[in-house]
Design goal:
Blueprint: H1 22-34, H2 42-49, E1 57-59, E2 67-71, E3 75-79, E4 82-86, E5 88-93, E6 97-104, E7 107-114, E8 126-127, H3 131-150
Antiparallel strand pairs: 1-2, 2-5, 3-4, 5-6, 6-7, 7-8
Length: 153
């Protein structure tokens, strides 16, 4: 399932309902300070999203988040009379947890959610608040870049 927004704005430290807490703000700020900007940046994300092979679903080896799904077109959908925004996104999953690298208007938004999302909880995504999740995401992103660089039809 793709990450959904009600607006074209990155949520940052806010949860899917745009609610904030002081603790979350501090934890998210700490995670942002730990991002390897030479690895995860706007240019590298665009390079993956708009990869020359036009791959959208990828299975990686030797990484925690080994299922990858790429949304290479930002779109609005009308579902039950409500408009939802599906941004450019790279989704990584281990089958239980999903971590998304979202690109909205040049901003990077890193979100996480459970794969066991209920139908009535369409926006069940929150910011990544734990550095170990970020490090696993960076390892998976690096593996994805290597996979795309070495890909042969």
């Amino acid at each position: 399932m793709n990450v959904r927004y009600l607006t074209e704005d990155a949520l940052g430290h806010l949860n899917h309902n745009k609610k904030s807490s002081f603790i979350w703000k501090l934890m998210y700020k700490r995670v942002l300070s730990k991002i390897d900007k030479s690895l995860i940046n706007v240019d590298s994300i665009k390079k993956v999203i708009f990869n020359l092979h036009r791959l959208n679903d990828i299975k990686l080896e030797d990484t925690i988040y080994n299922n990858v799904s790429i949304r290479n077109q930002a779109v609005w959908y009308m579902i039950e009379d409500i408009e939802y925004y599906f941004p450019l996104c790279i989704s990584f999953s281990d089958g239980i947890t999903k971590v998304d690298i979202v690109l909205i208007e040049g901003d990077i938004d890193i979100r996480t959610s459970s794969m066991k999302t209920h139908k009535d909880r369409l926006f069940d995504h929150n910011p990544v608040l734990v550095v170990s999740v970020l490090k696993n995401l960076e390892n998976s992103f690096s593996s994805l870049q290597k996979y795309l660089n070495n890909y042969k039809k």
